[in-house]
Amino acid sequence: MTPSDRSPSAALAGDRAHLLHPLHHPSAHEHPRIWVEGRGAIIKDADGREYIDGLAGLWNVQVGHGRRELADAASAQMATLAYASSYAGSTNHRAIELAERLSAIAYSSINAFYFTSGGAEATDTSIKTARFFWKAHGRPDKVKVISRRRAYHGLTLAAMSATGLPAFWPMFEPRVPGFVHIDAPDPYRFTNSDPSLSLGVAAANELEAAILREGADTVAAFIAEPVQGAGGVIIPPPDYFARIREICDRHDVLFISDEVITGFGRTGRWFGLEHYGVEPDIMQFAKGITSGYVPLGGIGVSDRVREAINGAPPGRRWMHAYTYSGHPTCCAVALRNLQIIEDERLVERADVLGAYFRSALEPLGSLDEVGHVRAQGLIGAVEVVADKATKALHPPEAQMTQRLTDALLDRGLYTRVAMDCICLAPPLIVSEEQIDRIAAILADAIPAVRREVGR
Ligand SMILES: Cc1ncc(COP(=O)(O)O)c(C=O)c1O
Fold it and tell me: For a FRET experiment, which of 64, 79, 313, 413 has its CA 20 to 30 Å from that of 70?
């Protein structure tokens, strides 16, 4: 008998006895679903109930669940060469092919790639590489990292320190020194105190102010998600990143684009900064590269960063490594996944269907309980507020996160809620009917939760 054959109650007894979960707390695990199956945009629990996967797993299942092609790609590679070291002196065909493939689809100046097992390792790799770059250029004091409030970059110590969500910090402090946060370019909540500037430029200027405050000679990099995902899906104004690029260039600060969520079609482009017409010095990715079927992440570096890595003397080499870097099986699945995205034109689909998605969500903005609705491609959010006029959130005792999550699950929609923003990022193969259903569930659940907590 395999564990999946056990009754839900027996399995949950085992879970409670032996398993610690991400963001663990028993209060969040009183009625957990045991997920047993997925097909397309639908996931099924051990009680046989079906749900729309409104977050594509954790923003990663681009091609949908149950794709036999990906299982076959993993199986064929495992049967041939499941694993081999990628340390300098060793390589493998799948890692080479994947790096070549990424060079073709990534920003034009990014042509060299390093693989990790996930997003947080990618963040650490980017930060270490930025520091390496400046040391290689004889500027060893450029070590600080600037990021945004409400950013999520993962939870290793360095990634946690770059993350701008304070809830992740207190029980693990002290944070790594040298991390600084500026405001998020949130079109709904950013306070622009200079009416002569657009919101995008004013928000980007916060970066320049922080660089000047810290001293440009001490700042290695600015790291930003093109769309801040886990912080509540914040989509910056169209002029934000051009100004960011300009500021980074002016002060010799590397620009790291964290594309862990926005990569591989999510926003209707292969990568999120394409909407803004600028290129980063380092990009990082994970999640959608394999549609989550196996763990894989990584970074891509610009030609000048690669030159710094290749040009260092052996004693000052890029001494960074993971056992699973360039994992042949993970790279094989990524290659097959990218092939599906291309064959099925899922990037274009996310763009075209994104317009449908946005127009399905927009009417929710007229609900008394909804302060803001936003979407770009197939990523979006509906922000629930206690008071539309003041934009005030409900107090913590209202437990809106748990209530909204439960109300949506009860109606057959799985997703996550961050700071009362209902985050949405369905698989890129989601249908128009499923999008209509998502909107209908939200329209029913949000007022129902508000009635529960009272006005
Ligand atoms: C933008 C971004 N960066 C980094 C990470 C961390 O990735 P992982 O959980 O694979 O470490 C995440 C995870 O959600 C993310 O959304």
Answer: 413
